[in-house]
């Protein structure tokens, strides 16, 4: 059976809730147009999360890899265009703070996703969900995981990989107090629509 690896993260920094976990857990095991979604959760740890992703890829052998991340403060669904070979930012959940580090020494400076991000954004907007392409996944864990997924995709013909940032859920927005939020059901539906567009592009 053809599989889609869908990943999210545990809570981190000032975000005591991570809606990517809820989305991944909700969609885990769902069938979409003959593809099975395999949902997995990653640690917010630069070293551990990369190894976890590689392990999940080895276990599931997915045709499609879609990783999700929380972008607290954004108010649109934002598929990411590019991942860069840099780790830099605030502390991960184990207190590690990378500064100007390469993900891979001597690695490619950047990779562009081969997910159909324009189709995703168009479909979401048509369905009434605010969305736009983002041209920066930052330099924190989200970029790190996007880069790792794209390294795998470049090494294996026919594999699609990429990353989607989501806004906070209502629960997180209330808990945090200073960021906008979406209904979790709308977040789940939006990611399902992105998956549908990816399958369509893969099958064409």
UniProtKB/TrEMBL annotation:
It holds the Pfam family Peptidase_C15. PROSITE patterns: PYRASE_GLU. Its EC number is 3.4.19.3. The keyword Metal-binding does not apply. The active site is at 80. Transmembrane segments: none annotated. CDD domains: Peptidase_C15. It is an enzyme of class 3 (hydrolase). Its main location: cytoplasm. It catalyses: Release of an N-terminal pyroglutamyl group from a polypeptide, the second amino acid generally not being Pro. The keyword Mitochondrion does not apply. Keywords: Cytoplasm, Hydrolase, Protease, Thiol protease. It is found in: Cytoplasm. Belongs to the peptidase C15 family. Removes 5-oxoproline from various penultimate amino acid residues except L-proline. This is Pyroglutamyl-peptidase I. It comes from Lysinibacillus xylanilyticus.
């Amino acid at each position: 059976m053809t599989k889609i690896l869908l990943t999210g993260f545990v809570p981190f920094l000032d975000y005591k809730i991570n809606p990517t976990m809820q989305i991944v857990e909700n969609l885990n095991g769902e069938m979409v147009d003959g593809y099975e979604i395999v949902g997995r959760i990653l640690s917010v740890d630069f070293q551990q999360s990369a190894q976890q992703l590689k392990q999940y890829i080895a276990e599931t052998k997915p045709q499609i890899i879609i990783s999700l991340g929380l972008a607290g403060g954004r108010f649109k669904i934002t598929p990411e265009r590019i991942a860069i070979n840099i780790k830099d930012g605030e502390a991960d959940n184990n207190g590690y703070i990378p500064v100007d580090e390469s993900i891979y020494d001597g690695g490619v400076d950047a990779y562009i996703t081969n997910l159909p991000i324009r189709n995703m954004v168009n479909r979401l907007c048509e369905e009434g969900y605010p969305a736009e392409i983002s041209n920066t996944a930052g330099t924190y864990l989200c970029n790190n995981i996007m880069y790792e997924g794209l390294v795998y995709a470049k090494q294996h013909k026919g594999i699609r990989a990429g990353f989607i940032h989501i806004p906070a859920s209502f629960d997180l927005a209330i808990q945090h107090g200073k960021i906008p939020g979406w209904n979790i059901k709308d977040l789940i539906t939006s990611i399902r629509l992105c998956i549908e567009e990816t399958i369509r592009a893969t099958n064409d």
